[in-house]
Write a structure and sequence with these properties.
Helix 4 packs antiparallel against helix 15, helix 6 packs across helix 8 and helix 9 runs parallel beside helix 10. It is globular, with a radius of gyration of 24 Å. The chain has 17 helices and eleven strands. Helix 11 links the parallel strand 5 and strand 6. By secondary structure, the protein is α/β, with parallel strands linked by helices.
Length: 489
């Protein structure tokens, strides 16, 4: 008897799985947003050894419900305001299911032409939806590729930048001289990791000053660092400008930074992982200022705010030449007529791994289901709710909002009269613990000007005005109750 699941068995269990997911999403508000389990609790509940004999799939679903669900932090919960949204919409889930069902490994065009060609169309569609320049299209000098995340995108961009900065010597000989990567204190930590992986090390990363109010990168200080390194015999490889930083959604001045990079001949990578998809709305296209003129590469993540479940990040490059030169290799077992003719795109040359999933299916499903109008409506709802929340915070004497907050994230600091800065920060962190322990919401924190502040990111597919209003009332109530327990109150 074959151990494989038959098509009829798959059909029956597949319906059970889809029903389970639909029931989960429909009843997600009944769960505490943040998992309440203790470290090791899930592992101890699971068998220590694998089963000798196969088990019915119903047992898998039963244990998922009984053992694993308590250890899930519910990113699709309408009270999830931590980090950034990681939306999983119906069409994206179904697109991912289709990808899994086809089981495509799309490393080469020849291994599934539709996998490659759909991706070229979808990334071109997305570039058009976001108002990105024409040279980012795959039928132009550059092109787009779906990565797993912006972290991989920045690594790939850095490898291409190093290839160009070293006139190909880095690709052939490795790091034989000192190169530098330029970021700010607000740049995502993945850039430093990329520098380590690429061989620059942490010592090859330069921190550019930021404006103390907006937290945006200072182009004048960037110019100073570039010139200093040149004088010291260090080759500037890449500058990363961020459009919508993780901490506060600060926006670096890309036109000014780009002009400096152009003057000095340095690769400019624009990391718009969170905010880039917001430019589907014409009124937010100012976020693209300077990209068309100066960006050598650009990345954004549909898997954050654009209703496409993880993982789906898109990287575009203005000129694919350095990227392909840095990453291409062709062992004999991958040779084929289409690749040898140079008439196709082989996306394995656009990423670090050889293998790749059919991620384009879920992004294609999302764009077709929602259309441009539906995508814009989702972004506008998140921005609108965030601005309304910011207004409530500004009107309450117990809180202070951080400005600016142009997108779906609002950072704010509770006021604790009578406490010094250190005591106030401890009170803020205690408030955060109480709010997250309530089960009704999940927030995170950051530091601005060395002071602890709370972050509330709005943009979940299930989040409505009532959820934001309920969260704000809970924050005010917990703040008032905690204030009464502090010294002098």
């Amino acid at each position: 008897m074959s151990p494989h699941m038959t098509p009829e068995e798959f059909r029956r269990h597949g319906r059970q799985v889809v029903d389970w997911i639909a029931d989960y999403l429909a009843g997600i508000e009944s769960h505490p947003v943040m998992s309440q389990v203790k470290p090791g609790e899930i592992r101890r509940a699971l068998p220590s050894a694998p089963p000798e004999r196969g088990e019915p799939f119903e047992s898998v679903l039963s244990d998922l419900e009984r053992l694993l669900l308590p250890g899930i932090t519910h990113w699709q919960h309408p009270g999830f305001f931590a980090y950034f949204p990681s939306n999983a919409s119906g069409p994206a889930i179904l697109g991912d299911l289709l990808s899994s069902g086809l089981g495509v490994q799309g490393m080469l065009w020849v291994t599934s032409p539709a996998c490659t060609e759909l991706e070229t169309v979808v990334v071109d569609w997305l570039a058009e939806l976001l108002g990105l320049p024409g040279h980012f299209r795959t039928d132009a000098a550059g092109g787009g590729v779906i990565q797993d995340s912006a972290s991989s995108a920045c690594l790939v961009a850095l490898l291409a930048a190093l290839h160009r900065a070293g006139d190909g010597r880095v690709t052939e000989e490795g790091i034989t001289r000192r190169y530098a990567l330029y970021v700010s204190s607000q740049t995502h930590s993945s850039l430093e990791r990329a520098a380590r992986i690429a061989g620059l090390g942490a010592a090859g990363v330069r921190l550019v000053d930021v404006d103390p109010r907006t937290l945006a990168m200072d182009p004048a200080h960037l110019r100073t660092l570039l010139d200093r390194d040149r004088a010291d015999g260090i080759v500037p490889a890449m500058v990363c400008a961020t459009v919508g930083t993780t901490s506060t959604t600060a926006v670096d001045p890309v036109p000014e930074i780009g002009a400096v990079c152009r003057e000095r001949g340095v690769w400019l990578h624009v990391d718009a992982a969170y905010a880039g998809v917001a430019t589907v709305c014409p009124e937010l296209r100012w976020l693209n200022d300077g990209v068309a003129e100066y960006a050598d590469s650009y990345a954004t993540n549909p898997h954050k705010w654009l209703l496409t479940n993880f993982d789906c990040g898109v990287l575009w490059t203005a000129d694919r030449g350095p990227l392909l030169a840095a990453l291409s290799s062709l062992p004999e077992y991958l040779r084929n007529a289409a690749t040898s003719a140079g008439s196709v795109i082989d996306y394995r040359d656009w990423q670090v791994p050889l293998g790749r999933r059919f991620r384009a299916l879920k992004l294609w499903s999302v764009i077709r289901w929602y259309g441009a109008e539906g995508l814009r409506a989702h972004i506008r709802q998140g921005v609108g709710l965030a601005q309304e929340l910011a207004g409530w915070i500004a009107a309450d004497p117990g809180f202070e909002p951080h400005e600016p907050h142009p997108l779906g994230l609002v950072c704010f600091r509770p006021r604790w009269p009578g406490l010094d800065a250190r005591e106030a920060d401890r009170a803020t962190m205690r408030l955060l613990e109480l709010l997250n322990a309530s089960g009704s919401m999940y927030l995170t924190h950051t530091r601005i000007g060395d002071r602890a502040v709370l972050r509330m990111a709005i943009g979940g597919a299930a989040t409505e005005r009532r959820h934001v209003e309920q969260a704000w009332e809970r924050i005010r109530t917990e703040h008032a109750a905690l204030s009464r327990t502090l010294p002098g109150h």
